[in-house]
Amino acid sequence: MSNLGLHAIYKLLNSYSEVVCERAFWERENRAEPLPPLSLESQRPLSDFAVLAFSINYELDYFNVVQILRASGIPLYAADRDERHPLIIAGGPCIIANPLPLSPFFDCLCIGEAEAILPAMLPVLTEGIGGKRNKLLKELASLPGIYVPLTHSGTPVIRQWASNLDDFPVASTTLTSDTELGDLYLIEVERGCNRGCRFCLTNNAFRPMRYRSI
Length: 214
Ligand code: SF4
What we know:
By secondary structure, the chain is α/β, with parallel strands linked by helices. The chain has a domain at 4-147. The protein is built from 6 helices and 6 strands, in the order αβαβαβααββαβ. The chain has helices at 4-14, 61-71, 93-97, 114-128, 133-141, 201-205, and strands at 51-55, 87-91, 108-110, 146-147, 190-191, 210-211. The model has no long low-confidence stretch (mean pLDDT 94). The structure holds iron/sulfur cluster (SF4).
């Protein structure tokens, strides 16, 4: 919970009346067969949920995705899942920059910022999550900023971004001693960076740089 982006998504998802968003964290354990991870709020196994949404911020998270799915008893590959399993989605800087390494594992990948993608995505999910998975994937693939590896036609997916940050206040939703920066109240004052360093995800995944009004 030291990542302010996670606070923002958690608050944004729970602001929709038709959504209940819980959190789950992966903890490394010294055992050959790790215990299935449970959601923090209701202590339910992840396989109980309709949708699992991963925030991928670092390349090393890739390995954790596989371990979480495996420990939860969920088939690893999108091609092996159907409507009996949670829909597995992901977003975050690594997905925006290059979704291909993880594409076999995910049903859909969000190319851009959640504030710009969720308003079109959530009604489709709400309507289609209980139906046939193939139909849901086709509908998701037609939305801006959504990459569905199983049905992708090759047409480039355009990255989506929030044009006015003032519409989406971002600050800490939880203060906890269980994380770094947990006793600080974090506020997003700007997004992106215009320094232009070629190696930097912030520069490339969150263009253009935007400020909030004071
Ligand atoms: S490394 Fe990234 S965040 Fe830092 S100055 Fe360069 S572009 Fe900006």
